[in-house]
Each structure stands twice: as C-alpha cells, then as structure tokens.
Amino acid sequence: MKRLFSNGLSLGLVLLALLAVDAVRAQTHAAPAATQKNTVVAFQAPDESAMPDGDYGRAVKLGEQIFLHTQLHAGAYVGNNLNCASCHLDAGRKANASPFAAAYVVYPAYRSKNGHVNTFAERLQECFRYSMNGKMPAPGDPVLVALESYAAWLAKGAPVGGEIAGRGFPKLAKPALPADYLRGSQVYLQSCALCHGANGEGQLSDGKMAFPALWGKQSFNWGAGMHSVDNAAGFIKANMPLALGNSLTDQQAWDVALFVDSHERPQDPRFTGSAEQTRLKYHDSPYSMYGTVLNGHVLGAQP
Asked: Which of the 8 DSSP states describes residue 228?
C-alpha cells in the first residue's frame, strides 16, 4: 500500500480500483453462464437453392431425400409408412415441429430415455427404432451420414450448443379439464379424420404415404416420443390441422392427443414380456397410456 501511495495514488482510488476488479470478476464468472442458458436464438435455415456442390453437397441432397422419402431411400430400416418429414414438417425446417437444425446443435447430450450421453447419430438411430418402427442403421452407415450431413447443412450458422427458438414441440400448460377420450374422439372426427382416416390408418396417394397413420400397424410404436400425450398435444396445437396450426384450443389439443395415444400401435421394442413391467421400467409417466386399461383392454399388452 505504501508503494501505491508513493506514486501519488490515494486510498480512495485504490478502493475504487479494487471494487471495479471485483465487479469484472463477478460478470466474468457468473453472468455469461446465466445468459447462455436462458438465451433463445431466432434462426433461419438456409434456402434449398443454397445447397453445396461436390461430394458433401451430394450427401446433403441425399439426406434431404431420405428425410422426405424415408421408405424409398432407407427402406431397409423402416417398418411403417412414415417418413422423417411426417413429424419434422417442411423438410425439417418448421419451428415447433422439432426442426432438424435445432436438434443438431444440442448434441452430444444426455437423454434419460437411455440413460447416457447420446451423439446426434445415436439420436437418429433411435428415430428409426421407435418412430419408424424399424431397425437402427449401424454407425457410419451411408443413411446416417447423409442425414447428419443434411442436419449439419441446415444448421449452418446456428449457435452450437445454443437454444434455437421453436426447438422440439411446444410445452402446453396442463388443461383446465383432464384430457378426455370422448371429447378427443369428437375433435378427431371434426378436425383430423379427413386426412388421417376414420381409423387412424392415414392416406396413401399413388401408393405413397400422403398423410401418416396415427395408430395401428403402420404408425410409430409405443417407444416413440409421440406416444406421450404431452408431446402429441404440443405438436398438434402448433401444427394441426395441417397449415392451420393454433386453430385448436389447448383443451382440444390435449383431448385429441389422448384419444390418438389411446389406440394400439406396434409394440415397444424394449418389451419385457409384460405390459405392466414394461410400463414400470420405461413408461412410468402420467402422460403415457402404455399399460393402462381402456374399455377393458390393457394397451400394449400384445407382443
């Protein structure tokens, strides 16, 4: 302190300097983490006309085609009539419909579903296993490489590890009334059956899937995220009826989501041999209808 004073500095200036250092330290160590965690970034994926050339460009274009026409280009790994774009709308670009770029930038990430840190490729593998009711491509398979390339290109310029606006599906508040099967059946008849069929079977056009099956053998299986009523309600509210998103009330979205998810579909590939035990192990959630009794029938009981 004596040296400082000998150079003409007063005690008051020293104290001000120390306070300034403390303030900078506080901002450096505390503020950025909070800001990064809470910041949601608006992001626009590049236009299709901007796709690159060369080998990488061919991989990106193949990934787009797999995404749009999954059965045609990745049929060995698909067990139903769905395409990636059935849920990830507008070729994986639409906000609040689980846009592809927004998912790409948050991996690797821990997932409670399988209890470990997943790579983006592993996340894609599980989409084939559950949503497509098929088989997982091996690591490095050309199908996975093409889909990863397409996702990486869509995410060009996006903040790595950042929170992009519209990621995943919206989280709806709990409805004013508990979701109801009967009310949901009425919403389905009025707003959904025209496209998805009276029995949830979907519609084909020229032998190709035009509107996806929502239950039954050609739909996603019991392990897919869309089987959870809260996920389905968020997706429906934001996106359905097609091109008329947000036209249903929150209550209607919850009701029709419960109705759709209360129908049989392909078995969860993790089935233990007992719907009750499988529910306890993998579906212990108030939003899962798996293993519950509806009209005297245990959903998910068939092998």
From this structure: B
